[in-house]
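Sample entry (505 residues):
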Amino acid sequence: MKNKKITSFLLTFGCVILSIVLSVQSLPAQEADEGKLLQSLHSISSHKLFEYVIELASDKYAGRLTGTEEFNASARWVAAHFKKWGISPGGDKKSYLQAFPIPYTLVFEGCEVSLNIPYKGSVIKKRYRYEDEFIPGSTSGSGEVTAEVIYVGYGITAPELGYDEYKGMDVKGKIVLMEREAPVSPNRDPELFKKWRPYSFHQYKLENAVAHGVKGMLYNYGPIGNPNNSYSKSFIYSHVGSAVVADVFSGTGRKHRDVVGKIQKTLKPQSFATGKVSTIKNITEYHPEGIGYNVIGLLEGSDPVLKKEVIIVGGHLDHLGRCYEIMPGANDNASSVAVILGIAEAMAQCPIKPRRSVMFLCFGAEEQGIVGSKYYLEHPVFPLGKTVGFINMDGVGCGDRISALAARNYPEFWEFIKKANDKYIHRVIRPSSFANIARPRLDAARFLWKGVPTISFGVSGAPSYYHTTKDDIDTITPEIMEDMAQLFFVAVLDMANQDSLDFRK
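Predicted structure, serialized as tokens:
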């Protein structure tokens, strides 16, 4: 009995000693891997990322409107970097570019919005200031219309909801003043909003106006630029802000805020003829033959089995083009492309190779209706079931506060981001849930609808300028881009080297 106890003790003691020896032996290897990781991590430089933004926001790419030669040049520029770093092409015919059809409209100088004010038997034109008070519709027809302005609320005709803002209104040949979105909020009442959702799309509103014989539209939207709309050759429209809206309502006995509030409260139309006459003039050129591109770079995994799974890091490359001045799109979304390039270079050159495949995906036509990501999802390089997760970025270059949309939808996915941040980056990141029932505003929305685990990142906390000429390099915070690139480099490499991942559960 005594001998058995001694034998058992020796065996146990031997196992402990062996475990200690093996642990001590593995420490140099772990330290070496940590050293390699840190070396690659610190190769990501804010200076280089800022240079990428300066390039993409420069006049040579003219705002990167998908379909234009300037956008194509920016796509080739991104692809050249992937090639230089040895990242494989994932597009059509062994190229980096995945082509898809996308009509586009060019907008030229000479656009105007004015209010025609009768005065002593003549007319005084009050012309509104470009960008501060109006921006031409990015898919407007070319021409000029002068007509009475009819207020039509949200421009909705919904028989099944007992709601028609055109009923009883003489709008044929007229100009309508219209609100964006719908009178019901997806946040306040999601189930009710689902019934109104089809009527919240810009395309619906324009097409419904055309169907009613309307010739022009003052769209109460910013004013900001936005090429996400339909095109009708004879329909002239511009986006306007509070100055134009206030002038149209002036003298009507109504206040704009009260009228909108009543629509939202009662869900009853409040349309009326304003008695005001406006002129809208736009000079445009429509190109139905446009072809756009997604730019796809692929770092194949080192594991023969796990390489069939992919993690996507992406964001949109495009912006608004000229409307009629160049919209540089430095934050939206050259900043995200710069971060993608930073991650791609670091991962391509890192001695620690990902076991899973990693895709770097720069979408076209996000601004024109989230078309590029829709096309990719219909023509994926990897089966969607093998797409482990998608990190999307949109507007990550301006400020110091990071948001993680849909992070709470996928807690295990989010945990990898949180772990990397806690260990290396130490930024405040605010995770949130995302119901994703409104019209799609992000590439992330389309991936989520297809069941692909997705977290979408943005940055705030500093003055930024959405869809205007002021979204330029002067607004960029290079340090936040460096931190974002380092964060995702670590998190993606960690995810790519796990034995198993299933964020869908």
